[in-house]
Amino acid sequence: MEQLKVFQSSSGYFRLFFPEYETPVFGQKVCELRSASIHPNEVQECEHLSDLYEYLSANKYLFCTYRGVEDIHIVRILNSLGFEFVSTYKNVQCNAHDFREIPLNSDLDISVGDHYDHDKALMLEKGVMDYSTFQIDPLVDANLSSNRNVVRVKSYFSHPQHKMYVLRKGTELIGFLQFLVDGEARVADCVNGAIAREYQRLFIGPRLYSEAFKSLFKMGIKTIRGGFSSQNKPVVKLFAACNFRVVSEEIHLRLSVRS
Amino acid sequence: MNSEITAIILEALNDIESDIPLIEDQIDETPLYGAQGILDSLDLVNLIVAIESMINDKLNFVITLADEKAMSQKRSPFQSVGSLAQYIDDIMQEHTNG
After folding, report:
1. Range of the domain at A145
2. What distance in Å separates the CA atoms of residue A188 and residue A149, rounded to the nearest whole number?
3. Which of A94, A147, A164, A255 would be A113's cystine partner, CB 3.0–4.6 Å?
4. What is the CATH number of the domain that holds A198?
């Protein structure tokens, strides 16, 4: 992710990042603004935060998303610049000895996915609401955010640490869960999960998540991490049921730029 | 048998502290899952675990509700108290007869 500029306000410094991979999805550039701990001596060039909108507009950005701590001073400054609240985002983790399996007796078989599942997983992802901060944001077109999810999911397939757990019914893929597994550090990041629409609110999600976590811990993973929007209530409850704890929270605010 | 099973479902619902409003003469229509249902997937898991355990204790019958058969039904057995009671009854009958 390319670092663009440093901005300053009475609440400190902010860095602007440019995730290049988003451009083909949105057809225009989008960027992220994050709080930054920078010593004033390190800053060679910086603009005032009040000039952010002008900069984004001149450089034809479509959206700018603030991701960072919930700080009332920062929120007020960003609100005054036109940023609107999207969601709070929770980062959670669970260590192997804390894990609690969901005690569901079931014959549903969870297995490790292979490349034959990739196309089906993309189709499935396109049809579900995944509560990403783009998808829950009414400012963002639903088709755009759905396509963006598909691109994101696809990008994980080629990642060397990618591991996917799947639940099939016959030849149909009805759920999958993606991880990036660092075998050396023995840490797994749960990066995406989806259950086909018609099977949601059944017992599929709890079964898939719990079995996948159990499998990862069984193969020697020490810590599993995850992150999700607080609005994704079923997943919040699911991680809590497996005894994950919240390790950090951030808020997402978004500025829509009209150039 | 069906009324016994319905009583178990209601007791299990009570155990998982679900806030489902029950109307006395329309208990069977009480929605669990679906458009009108208020259970999420984890509530449903808790309900299933509680029902399986109570059926084992009270009726001395080992049952698995979260299986591929339940998932494959044209009409979800978890839609209402009545449909779930009927589904459990069917499983038990099948087992007894067969």
Report:
1. 92-249
2. 20
3. A164
4. 3.40.630.30
This prediction has a pTM of 0.85
Report the C-alpha gap between A63 and A258 in whole angstroms: 9
Residue A137 corresponds to which tokens in the numbers above? 């944001």
What pLDDT digit, counting tens, does each position of A34-73 carry?
988 887 777 778 889 999 999 999 999 988 999 998 889 9
Backbone angles phi, psi at A51, to 5 degrees: -95, 5
State the best of A100, A105, A168, A238 to mutate against chain B, taking most chain B CBs within 10 Å. Answer: A105
Domains and CATH numbers, chain B: 2-19+27-97 (1.10.1200.10)
Q: CB B49 to CB A233 under 8 A? A: no
**Does A144 lie in the same domain as A113?**
yes
Q: How far is CA A96 from CA A139, A159, A203, A213, A220, in A?
A: 40, 24, 23, 9, 9
Chain B contact for A197, CB < 8 A?
A: no
Question: What whole-number distance in Å separates Cα of residue A150 and Cα of residue A115?
Answer: 16
Task: Please tell me if residue A204 touches chain B, with a CB cutoff of 8 Å.
Answer: yes
Q: A203-235: per-residue pLDDT in tens?
A: 888 999 999 999 999 999 999 999 988 888 888
Q: Which residue of A has its CA nearest to B33?
A: A201
**Dihedral class, residue A135 (left if φ above 0, else alpha if ψ from -120 to 50, else beta):** alpha
